[in-house]
## 1
Amino acid sequence: CAKNHGRGVHRFFEPVLAAQIRDRRSLEHDLRHAVERGEFRIVYQPQMAVDSGTVVGFEALLRWQHPERGAVPPDLFIPISEETGSILGIGEWVLRETCREAASWEKPLRIAVNVSAVQLHAPGFAELVHEVLVVTDLSPARLELEITETALVRDPVRALATLRRIKAMGVRIAMDDFGTGYSSLSNLRAFPFDKIKIDRSFIRAVDVNRETAAIMRAVLGLGRGLGLPVLAEGVETSAELAFLGAENCHEAQGYLLGRPGPIAHFVEHTREAQGAADAA
Ligand code: C2E
Ligand code: MG
Ligand code: MG
Ligand code: MG
């Protein structure tokens, strides 16, 4: 293929391309060892009931601290780890860590864990979920797996079979980033979702943008019709939250309500209240 290009083009691009390929290879390599080297940590972002304003659960979000590169964002390293397959080990680590963490909370709050298409389609994924629940002694109803629509298109028959087995354990399934996939509506009908997480692009300025508001109302109507709660992602302003409250959106998550952080930042939510405040 390179032979078809002019010699000058070839000479010009080669060093840049070679550097990019080297960089990518080194990331792939480092990702394969990041779990054992202890470079990952999990941050937690609260999910809130809109009507009561109370925290009902947390989403677990993965962070990679690379020894030389510093913090590498998940939108960069998750796709690479999916291509090389290292997401399987990484995702298993996330599942074990988060279930163990959630099982230690005094309050039986939900823990939402992102699951990649590669994990969902890997043989033994349902068994892994079951094993982790048994080992950590976490009640299945407290675990929610977040799955994007794009994760379903690879092999819908297999994905459906796996989701059904996981659901049969009592684990909940949320459709993540709703509205950004290929065929959101047919996916809602075909797969056993328990919740719709509407993508944050539909929340941005929902209080002032008529089109965004119309879409948001339609999704909330859809949720009501299907009996599925809707969670709004990426809520950043109190005006956006007020809109969601007025439209009876069930749950919200976003920087306004809490940025992802170490679980230690949120202990007051995971512990039962004690003392005088409790009796009041
Ligand atoms: P996601 O599952 O849709 O997660 C929500 C993303 O939105 C997170 O980005 C979160 O930090 C960000 N976010 C939350 N509230 C706000 C807000 O008010 N404004 C804005 N602008 N952003 C907000 P993050 O942590 O960078 O994660 C990006 C994506 O990486 C996630 O999207 C998810 O698809 C993936 N990811 C993260 N952790 C994991 C994991 O453990 N496993 C897998 N398979 N994917 C993961
Ligand atoms: Mg998510
Ligand atoms: Mg999302
Ligand atoms: Mg996302």
## 2
Amino acid sequence: IHSNAWCVHYRPELEAKYVRRLTITTELKRALASNQSELSMVYQPKIDLSTMKVCSMEALIRWNNETLGFVPPDEFITIAEQAGLIEQVTTWVMQRTIADLSYFRQKGYGFTVAMNLSTQDIQNKPLLDKLVSILTDAALSPDALELEITESDLVADASLAIENLNALTSRGFHFAIDDFGTGYSSLAYLKNLPVDTIKIDKSFILSLATDDNDKQIVHTVLGLATAFDLKVVAEGVEDEMSLNILKEWGCDIAQGYFISRPLAKDALEEWLENSPL
Ligand code: C2E
Ligand code: CA
Ligand code: CA
Ligand code: CA
């Protein structure tokens, strides 16, 4: 009776998705194994709103592939997790980011670097041990880094993740909750976790200057964060008015295109030399 099931269910758009996923998996494996620099890191400055000085950089991965062109990190990170490749990607990110941070420290810059970790990463004890050893080899202390994780990371397998977070926190690492506001956790819940910073998701910040709803949400989050003694970063600041609102409301740190786009190491160095910040 189901002899024509394939025909009934066949959808070309699903096949296209499947083929793209397969190509990404194959090409990413190859990129990780080869020395060609398909993968690179860019860094986006964050400024301390009380001093208007650069305080940190978020490290963001980029992938340019010959066949696929530019592949958005959101897309290939998700596929890397499903294909068992995320450990290799994160290891590469850690090595490159810490090497670049070390370079900037030697140049005399004091900013910290924020690295993104995925759900599987914070459950992977050997990977986290590797982070500690890369940092130690570079003669950098854990407070040179911030680790960004999302709320969902703490729901997936809460006990193991939280145990690993606690272990790293006691060694001096700091964690920030990324994309805050898009998940389910409340600030009260975060209070019990080894997290000292939240990053308000850019969806609430992009139209802050004009959207009354966003204003209300951001104002409320800032008030509660102060009560819970959490530092707040606003990401996705694209205009001066939003920056001023955030500053006025006591937001600690801002990141976004208005300050700078994410920049490759050389461009960042140039930006740092010429920036009035
Ligand atoms: P995210 O961690 O939330 O990173 C912030 C994203 O917002 C970045 O996108 C950044 O380029 C973008 N952004 C920054 N300022 C603005 C702005 O003013 N306006 C707008 N419209 N966008 C802005 P990107 O680089 O495409 O990264 C997307 C996501 O991919 C990241 O979201 C993160 O979840 C993931 N990702 C990127 N690099 C890494 C990495 O090295 N490791 C892991 N695990 N995930 C990464
Ligand atoms: Ca992030
Ligand atoms: Ca984010
Ligand atoms: Ca994100």
## 3
Amino acid sequence: MSNTQTKPILQKHLSTANDAGSENSVTLSVLQADITTLNVDAIVNAANSSLLGGGGVDGAIHRAAGPELLEYCRNLNGCATGEAKISPAFNLPSQYVIHTLGPVWHGGNDNEAALLASCYRNSLDLAVENDVSSIAFPAISTGVYGYPLEQATEVAIDTVEAYVQSCLENATNFSIREIIFCCFSATDAAVYKQLLELH
Ligand code: AR6
């Protein structure tokens, strides 16, 4: 990532020697930033099922990407909870937007954690399929959808770390080198920092 304006609050490196004997590594970073400003290959959007824009990070991404994003999204036929779809990023500095639909929090007994984990895995699958090297995630479901931040952060970090470790050990074409947890507020970033340090 070639951002100069935003310094990571924390970075953690995951690495594994693969079967070929060479070492691959992936950097996980916590940033406090507006995700629409990040110069990464892909940013993830916490969208709604229509994929036609909304409030929160979704609204910010559509505003910054411009009306072509909405036009493109009309042909994506929406998104189911836990799934993800990819589009170009139009006027954003990134190349792609990966749109995912997080679960609405209903108290924790409605499969929310598994669905949220699917958002992260399916987004990373699409990133790898599109040869993405750097990707930034917002705190999916923790705004309008009401998922408690600490619990959502646990799911985010667990899922991403497990995905990366498995790919570093097994995948032959694993393109990802940097994964950013992009927090809008300092409070959210402090929670991500604390939990990533504990992992
Ligand atoms: N950059 C990074 N993070 C942001 C930004 C930004 N520019 N703006 C907000 N956030 P939310 P959800 C953070 O509500 O809970 C939309 O209307 C925000 O502080 O955007 O998954 C959709 O259309 C919070 O930490 O997404 C859906 O209807 C995080 O992004 C619904 O909201 C997620 O908050 C989805 O709700």
